[in-house]
Amino acid sequence: MLLSSVINTAHAINGDEILKITLSVIAGSILGFEREIRGKSAGFRTLALICFGSTVFTICSYLLGVDSNRDRIAANIITGVGFLGAGVIFRNNVSVSGITTAASIWIAAAIGMLIGIGEYVLAALSLVLSLFILYALDFIQFQIDFRFQHRDYKITFKDKYPSGAIQQQIESLNLQVTNSKLLRSGEQVILEVLVSGKGKQLELFNDWLLDQNIVQSFEW
């Protein structure tokens, strides 16, 4: 009887549905490969599962819903993906990381939903454009970062914070301060500051910090 149930279930599975879940795993794996080689928290397996799961839920939404309510389950995919995306975004001092990975999770779910409703061409186009953004535009981003960098400094002073000297040096090097936070730990004063500017100017700022006796240590 169990074997008969399995056979009946197998016959009930539509060939198009098998194609959809297969394509979703392939698409998610391709998208996840880029994140994997960069050592990100959501990589090869994660994005493959997200794309696959989105396709399965979209198929379930279509099969279980009536004509006027077939988007009921699929609509909740967006909510679930939002929680996953929030889990890979981290705040480090005054900078934020993981936003690109969160966006990759979001687009993986979108591609999975497109495959689930049978929009293969649109899903393929979305995958190609996503890979273009992640790979090709990365080169452009590198060129921009080379000319204009952002460094999240953590500067520890021995006893007091020389605000005037720091501000004067930053202005003389044409650097910009995006965000800053001042903390006290015992007799030490810690400055966490996000500084932006040309790489050469930032290196000069590092040299200046090394020459200051009042600076105990700094890192970025």
TrEMBL record:
Pfam families in alphabetical order: MgtC
Membrane topology term: Multi-pass membrane protein
GO cellular component, as recorded: plasma membrane
Keyword DNA damage: no
Keyword Cell membrane: yes
Locations listed in the record: Cell membrane
Occurrences of domain MgtC/SapB/SrpB/YhiD N-terminal (ranges): 22-140
Key words, A-Z: Cell membrane, Membrane, Transmembrane, Transmembrane helix
InterPro entries: MgtC/SapB/SrpB/YhiD_fam, MgtC_SapB_SrpB_YhiD_N
Transmembrane portions of the chain: 47-66, 72-90, 121-140
Main location: membrane
PANTHER family: MAGNESIUM TRANSPORTER YHID-RELATED, PROTEIN MGTC
Family per similarity comment: Belongs to the MgtC/SapB family.
Protein name: Putative Mg2+ transporter-C (MgtC) family protein
Organism: Mucilaginibacter lappiensis
